[in-house]
Amino acid sequence: ENLCKQGLAQGKRVFIRADLNVPLNKEEGIADDTRVRASAPAVKMALDAGAGVMITSHLGRPTEGEFKPENSLAPVAKRLSELLGCPVRLQADWVDGGFEVKPGDVVMLENCRINKGEKKDDDVLARKYGKLCDIYVNDAFGTAHRAEASTHGIAKYAPTACAGPLLVGELDALGKALQSPKRPLVAIVAGSKVSTKLTILKSLADKVDQLVVGGGIANTFILAEGHGVGKSLCEADLVPEAKAIIAAAKAKGGDVPLPTDVVVAKEFSATAPARTCAVADIAEDDMVLDIGPDTAKTLGDILRKAGTIVWNGPVGVFEFANFAGGTKAIAQAVAESAAFSIAGGGDTIAAINQFHIEDKVSYISTGGGAFLEFLEGKTLPAVAILEERAKGNHA
Ligand code: 3PG
């Protein structure tokens, strides 16, 4: 942004690494263009500053060295061109240069994960990338947890390297939520398994005032409280971890409010009859598929009083109407709350869209894995290298 404002991008070749890894389907092409829309401002900013723009991204997980049409960024180039209102030229075989980028041009460099050495952050490849440009801009928050040649290595070798507006915006929003939150800070961590979110739960138990757990994760916590969970998804071996998380939260003056009632069914199906019961009354052949209305009310009250909300994961099987009530109530409470709210992860965004609260969430992250790793308190390598570079360590 500053480079543009200072006029330093005028006449320069700018290489933008974006995250344009969008879901594609045969019928409509791009099924959700959020990431393309989120990446357009960086391109526009560079164009307005008089630069020639190259933009690249990975798409899917292709085999290195093997180009297949389904891995092509062609539909993304088309969508970006529509959004910018200017042509976007697609360039294949671009690693060794040999193509022109004039001021005002937008060139989409074909799927960078096809390049040999991209995924393993190969130094020779990173140097080649660096030679293509005058300014490297990393705007790919969604890929910031990957140390690959286009997200990491290039930042060492490009003449200038900096963060783009989306990356800066994401880091600001996450920082606001977790590093200097308005209290009470409430996190909702839900999903199928404690094991996949254990580090996040542990990291957040130390920071938040209320740690709301949901989905299969909550079942393991209900078990830790001494109740049976029938046939529900749960991880009995992680009961000691669940107890430790509750104890850690309490030791810091926080709490892990667990469900008091749940919605159960005899099978995992959209048409399965639903029954609401207290957690003490879960039968041996029951599966817990949602939180109950009393729990939804308690959590809703907590969320409405929050200063900051971090949301990752639906609390029930919201795809099935009979078990959508809990997630809907959470979504509505997030929407009604005056808190600064941030949400991320594919399922969470699907729930936000289903309950039409997109405009009521303060910040929706474009990151999946990157958002989770930030919540875990991990260093994002693509961000760390830019910080190193800013300190002059790679000038
Ligand atoms: C994502 O969709 O989370 C990012 O684009 C990263 O994709 P990856 O997991 O294939 O690296």
Automatic annotation (TrEMBL):
Please give the pathway this protein is involved in: Carbohydrate degradation; glycolysis; pyruvate from D-glyceraldehyde 3-phosphate: step 2/5
Gene Ontology biological process terms, A to Z = gluconeogenesis; glycolytic process
Stated EC number for the protein is 2.7.2.3
List residues binding substrate. 19-21, 35, 58-61, 113, 146
Q: Which residues bind (2R)-3-phosphoglycerate?
A: 35, 113, 146
Protein family membership: Belongs to the phosphoglycerate kinase family.
What is the name attached to this protein's record? Phosphoglycerate kinase
